[in-house]
Specification:
The chain is an all-beta fold and 476 residues long. It is 1% helix and 47% strand. The protein starts with a strand and ends with a strand.
Length: 476
Amino acid sequence: MADYTYRIEGFAGLDQSRDENLLSPAYSPDAMNVDTENGDLAVTKGFSKLIPLPVPRESTSGIDRVCFFRSASGDIPMAISGGYIYTYSEAGGWTRAYEYSLVPEKRHYSVLMTRIGITDTMLIADGVNRIVKFDGSQFSDFGSHEGCSDIPVGFIAMYRGRLFAAGSYEDPNRLYYSKLPGGSRTIEDWGSDPDSPQVEGGHIEIGTTSGDPITAVCAMSNQLLIFKRSSVYRLIGDRPGNFTVELIEKDSAPVTDTATAVCHDVIYYVTRGGLHSFSGVDVSPLPDSRRIKRIMQDADVSDTRMAAVGSRLYFTIRKDGASRLIEYDPETRRYMQYGGFGLYDICAHDGSLIITNSAHYLEKWGEGSDFDGQPIMAYWRTPTTDLGEKSVVKTLGGLYLRGASIEDAPLLVKVRAGGVEREYRSLLPSSETGVLEIPLKDEGRTFGLTFENENGGRFCIVGGVEMSMSVRKRTV
């Protein structure tokens, strides 16, 4: 019989890309509502109300879109629900400020903060009605018939100083572009200009088949990416005379307009195959996208929302009938998932993630110790492993942890060994300098651990984990 020490040097993130036996113990094949910042393992922070009043509930659709009108005089929270646009002020609360004449069955709204002339303006497109504009005080129709810009479109983006738009029901392959602003020209004019063809507006047909309509447009600093139902194109150039459209992917999965985000001038987007990116050359899954392959398997991404907050990406999915929030850090290549709460839309605001929940509140992510009054249920499961020696029986001796329980919240450790799971309930030391020793009485050729909180309690494990054991060959 020989002694052996099993070590988890630190905690990283999710990894479902390989068999658990091949995984580093720093990764988990299944975890929920935990934070691994600095290699520690802790219950994630929660969220709390950004605004004390809920968005009025006048339909069963939930909140279809949340955004913020931004100007030098301040920010105005905005929410779209059930065909109504609401604005918020501390003096008047939520006010129904605009009502759509037609409400799209699939309620995806493309929003864009820009300027028309010298006026800060929010544009909202829904694919059924003409674009709506908001100048901070009132809503009005965008464009004009004379300017060829009163067309209902669903997707909008600013590129090279022009407004680009697509998603017309009558012309699903058509990409519109505005005149280049200057002088009397604004982005509300999409018409031609024989005297100044380099600044005129117009349109380009992207592809030829109606069965492959444009589904999203997303701008980088030097090109515009155009997603279609089964293909991807890009537009380069800075004026109609040198606009060039190139096919860069001819067999791709559908992408919705709300499932795209730009971070450090890289376009990220979500399909049923996971997280993809476009850095300016081609589109492809992220090299580590398989780390959440089981989460994405059978996940519903038809209503996925995505946001970039600082250097991190967040996107939503529906899985097993419930909402989940996925976090990805491109710098550390770490995935985490969060759940246990209703979730509609998300957006970035002032360096924070804003979510809208099933109670119609705007919530600020990363604040507080609960999900706005609801307990956070968290767990981290280590890979089940045989340590590369399947013939050897492992007799587990003791588990050693440093960390701290908050408000005397117990830590639950579930040990899987020999086909049996046993639960140990302990309090971490009051100081991170102390070490908790949990005597174990488990045995098997394979083993694994699960760390859980109890009733939403909070804990933090620092400095990794050690487990002593003895190993032996079975003799009978």
